[in-house]
Amino acid sequence: MDPWQLVIGFAAGAAAGAAFFAALWWTARRLPSARKPGLLALGSFVARLTVVLGVFYLLSRYGRWEPMVAALAGFVAARLVAVRRVRPAAQDK
User: Fold this and answer.
1) Cα–Cα distance between 90 and 93 in angstroms, integer?
2) CB 3.0-4.6 Å disulfide test: which of 19, 23, 34, 68 passes with 40?
């Protein structure tokens, strides 16, 4: 197993996750003012899912499961970063 496959898998998963959660944040901010919020939500979901599944499909062509696990780890890491950036700061009591 080439270690670069793991690095590529992690980076691809992180990039897909960053794109997914950035688009989700963009969509959530636009929904209140959208003329057709249902269409916006559905279109955004389909686009985000297509990108993520496309990245995972391309990684599956390596023929090994390890890059897929690395990509999943990268995706989860991107989610953790996104949640920390969006979550409001805790207020002191």
Assistant:
1) 9
2) 34
